[in-house]
Design goal:
Blueprint (H helix, E strand, L loop, with lengths): L3 H15 L3 H14 L4 H13 L3 H14 L4 H13 L3 H14 L5 H12 L3 H14 L4 H13 L3 H13 L5 H17 L3 H18 L2 H20 L5 H8 L11 E6 L5 H9 L4 E5 L3 H11 L6 H19 L7 E5 L7 H7 L4 E6 L2 H9 L15 H18 L6 E6 H6 L1 H11 L11 H5 L28 H4 L3 H10 L4
Parallel strand pairs: 1-3, 1-4, 2-3, 4-5
């Protein structure tokens, strides 16, 4: 219990935490833990604030203390598990979900969370066991029925998965996520069996349900404001801007960092496949959409207009430190590859802080990119809200790729474009070309990249696709949906021409 006289300070700290003011929240929580050392909730929130400030060791100690104080509080244990999961510590997250399930054997949420995590780690047999436990508790539970169908699809039991999903939709599930997620999942199955019109119908229903749950207009306005500013800023920079920046931050003033590359492009352009091919090389460590740029580098860069050599070196250290926290000892002595499609819009910041950065841009037929994005069921934010309609996906494509088209005209940095279709046609030839661009020779293990992928925790929504050899089913997929894409094809035509997809 939290004493009454502590409540006011706790409320103040919690409000700061919820408003993302972690720097001010942390010292308040540190003081609260001394004043009320037996309150597991305070220790949990203390860990949350520390984690968001990248104080991982402090967060771990705080969460450990909370778990020690409340070993039977299933809800709190699961909450800490989700925090571990968000900070990319899957083993500790898995332990927490297992402990929460043991603390409340009739609870389904923790068991489902464990199953989802096991699926992301490609441990399908164990994920199936967790789901079956949920169904034993409640055979009609929405989440358990949905995820059982997902596993059926993962195990290629397509007819069984389809029957389960149709039954689930007909039962009108009460769980908000399941209501739309089962329609997304069924659309994927219908696409695989060439029932394109029906797939579009279920996608439309799913997106309508999502819109009803979220203030998408607010998210869209936020996106449009930021996208317009970013595109205008980049287009107004001269082609020799890198030489101007270099005068203020010459090589002799730069702190040494590991060899660094950025792998970007529009989402669904084959970045995850290429990332896994590169990561299979023993001299490279490719990261799957790390948060270091968006949570560490970009906010710190924009927090001040003062960009002295000393300050930029601090930003470089913070960014590399964040990558090392995620990779651990696997980063030692390797080329670091940050695969992150959406931050392609931040290339001016990347190149301002890392003039030596090598840039890889993944390309794919814009029509296939837009279609693939439309099929994705991913949590909404100011970027992904654009995936709710073809018109908005096409606009997002234009916004992002216009920035790349402007930046690739800049003088004095190392970049390469790589086409998804070329990788699919001859994976070793195209993989070798990109590998050599990063200063390495092709390694035989890269041809079997999927073997390593099966052992990794993946964060991209397409984590399932890169655990098997390269396939070409997704090339020119857009043609089966041409009538649905017809209204936006004129908007995509200029990009098809610029990137050679006429």
């Amino acid at each position: 219990m939290i004493p009454a006289h502590i409540h006011k300070k706790h409320k103040e700290a919690r409000e700061l935490l919820l408003s993302n003011d972690f720097a001010r929240a942390l010292p308040l929580y540190e003081k609260l833990t001394r004043q009320c050392p037996g309150a597991a909730a305070i220790w949990t929130e203390y860990g949350n604030a520390a984690c968001r400030l990248r104080k991982i060791d402090l967060a771990d100690r705080a969460w450990h203390q909370a778990l020690k104080l409340a070993p039977n509080d299933a809800e709190l244990i699961a909450l800490i598990g989700h925090q571990y999961q968000g900070s990319r510590q899957p083993k500790k997250a898995r332990d927490c979900f297992a402990c929460a399930s043991a603390a409340d054997p009739r609870g389904i949420n923790s068991c489902i969370s464990l199953a989802v995590l096991l699926d992301q780690q490609h441990q399908l047999d164990e994920a199936r066991v967790a789901v079956e436990e949920c169904l034993t508790i409640d055979p009609r539970d929405d989440q358990a029925r949905y995820f059982s169908a997902v596993l059926d699809r993962r195990e290629n039991k397509l007819e069984r998965a389809e029957r389960s999903l149709r039954d689930l939709i007909a039962s009108e599930p009460k769980h908000p996520f399941v209501r739309y997620a089962c329609r997304y999942e069924l659309a994927q199955l219908l696409d695989r069996t060439d029932r394109c019109d029906e797939a579009m119908r279920f996608l439309g229903e799913a997106k309508g349900l999502v819109r009803a749950l979220t203030n998408t207009e607010l998210l869209t306005r936020g996106y449009d404001y930021g996208a317009e500013r970013g595109r205008a800023f980049t287009k107004n920079l001269p082609k020799d801007i890198l030489s101007t920046w270099a005068k203020f931050f010459p090589e002799r003033k730069r702190d040494r960092i590991p060899p660094l590359a950025f792998l970007g492009g529009h989402p669904r352009s084959g970045t995850t496949l290429l990332e896994q091919i590169l990561d299979a090389h023993p001299a490279m460590a490719a990261l799957d959409e790390p948060t270091a740029f968006t949570e560490v580098l970009q906010p710190a860069f924009h927090a001040s207009k003062e960009h002295s050599s000393q300050r930029i070196n601090v930003l470089r250290r913070l960014y590399v430190q964040a990558l090392r926290q995620e990779l651990g000892t696997d980063a030692d002595g390797k080329v670091l590859v940050d695969k992150n499609p959406s931050p392609t819009a931040g290339l001016p910041v990347w190149l301002r802080v890392f003039p030596e950065l090598r840039v890889i841009i993944a390309l794919r037929d814009p029509r296939d990119v837009v279609l693939s994005c439309y099929f994705q069921n991913i949590p909404l934010n100011t970027v992904n809200v654009n995936f709710l309609s073809f018109e908005r996906v096409a606009k997002h494509y234009a916004d992002l790729m216009d920035i790349w088209l402007a930046v690739r005209e800049w003088e004095g940095f190392a970049w390469i474009e790589t086409r998804y279709e070329d990788t699919v046609a001859d994976m070793e030839k195209e993989g070798r070309r990109v590998t050599e661009f990063l200063g390495q020779s092709w390694h035989e293990s890269q041809a079997r990249f999927y073997e390593k992928s099966r052992t990794k925790q993946m964060y991209s929504p397409t984590y399932q696709d890169v655990t098997r050899p390269v396939y070409n089913r997704s090339v020119a997929r857009w043609r089966a949906y041409e009538k649905h894409l017809a209204p936006i094809l004129p908007a995509l035509e200029p990009y098809c021409k610029k990137f050679g997809y006429e």
